[in-house]
User: What shape does this take?
Amino acid sequence: MSNVEVKRNVARYSSRRAFGAVFRIIFLSVATLPVLSGCAKDDSSRRSETDIAITVAQAESGGELVLIQGGQFVMGDAGGAADETPHDVYVDAFYIDRHPVSQSLFEGVMGVNPSKRKGSDNPVERVQWTAAARFCNKCSELEGLTPCYDLATWECDSEASGYRLPTEAEWEYACRAGSQSKYSFGDDASQLARHAWCKPHSLGRTWPVGEKLPNAWGLHDMHGNVWEWCNDFYSDSYYSQSPRENPRGPDGGKKRVLRGGAWSSTAGACRAAHRFSEFQVFTDACFGSDSYGFRRVRNGKSTPAEEPSLAELRPDRAAETKQPVVAQPVPSETPPPVIAADGKIDPERLQGTIVFVSDRGGPLDIWKMNANGRNLKQVTADAHADADPRFSPSGDRIMYTSAREGFPHVWMMNADGSNPQHVTEGSQAAWSPDGKSIVLIRDDQAHIRELASGDERRVTPEQWRRCGVPAWRPDGKQVAVASRHLERIGIFLLSTDGILNQQLKTEDACCTPQWSADGGQIVFQTDKGHIHLLYTEDGTEEQVTFGADIQHDARFSPDGSMIVFCRAPSEDGPWQIWVTDLGSDDLESIPITNEGSNRLPDWHQSAD
Assistant: This one.
């Protein structure tokens, strides 16, 4: 860096230190907080607590924010993943929530609490990116500030006076708190339990904010508890093109960034540089989001006019649209599992075709294979993330969810991936037994759509919320829908005219229902991460998968004697496709994939 650049940055940094009355607050004070002092050596056991002056602001809308002075740091991790390339970054001063937004704060502002694990002091979770942006706007309005988000386009005016989500650079700068180690306190992961609620110490849930030690700048729970949404779109190549000053991420993309890890994360996912991403409106209504939270930021500069526009500094990263391709065999460096070696399930029984979602080709795409794990083919390969594939009753078509500009749409294609067609806005579509209609989720409600005419009718009561993963009873008289409109999520059976409904009586909170072909059983997953069967004639319930791993998304084999599902050591994956023999004494199970992360399988009797 030249001497001119150094002097310019020092002058800029100094000018940011005098903020005056930056925004309307109840009080602005300098508090002396006990925090861990920074240390060059990674020996957390020998660190002592030190009093450091932290500027704390109490917002009118609720919550405490800490003033983070602007400065320079190295963003990324040379020893981390490929998308963590180290690069120099300078960020202006900003205020950031001292803790993740709590359930009491969120409910006080928005009037609702979407969290799965209720607790007023726990971080709010199950929050979509769009809901977090709406919350920021609402806080701005309550305080008479200019909202940052245009709710029609979701564009963010970073110069507005109101609240927004942190940029990825702001988040990492605040998390590191002057450190350059794996964690804000050093490199020793054995010390993580003192600073973070994460696996295995979290006991599988969130905890009240602020109970763990803060970082050197007085911020709690930057590691663990809940993933935290950032404002940036995600790109695995953005770091190589990032502007140095106040980077704000790509101009567009399919997913938004989350940072910090969560209660379900391993130590590696809680690193300061670790990057995670998710659709801003995710499609899993059950368990895919109960670790997503956020915290707000406000600009810390005196007036927006002092800063030049960054439009010329940000690269144009608009996603290029590619056309889906007809499925082709994909060579694999790792051969499929030899499923007959242990004798658990006769490979001759594994007939038909399994379709599923995988990231083995990069973004989420739809793949398929023979039920024995052979003849792997990629079905979609475009710029959009695809999920929820479901065979039509005849097996010649596949209905699926495709995220377009971050929002879900239902699409349909031939089973070989040809002739993709847009059906409607929504997600998680399931076929009627005659293949003439579908049931889908839109705006947290289940709708039945006639494919020929496009006519629709809502089948879930208007007051229900967080409905998802519908399935059609084989006789066509009912649909099963998971819903969280009560205290815990459960499975509800609704008549197709939307008049009658009843809840399945299950031991645990449950989701993702699917009927057997004869209608005699329903398979589902519980919030404890296991697969259960319910016998519809007498209501008897049976657990059919076991172990410390998590099992999700079960579907019956065509003859009903087996189930296919996905299994992973944690919510972070990697997920693999497994088959369980329901008729065996020990419920014998085998994997049929062994690379990538694979989810949402469906099984049809037709041979590929």
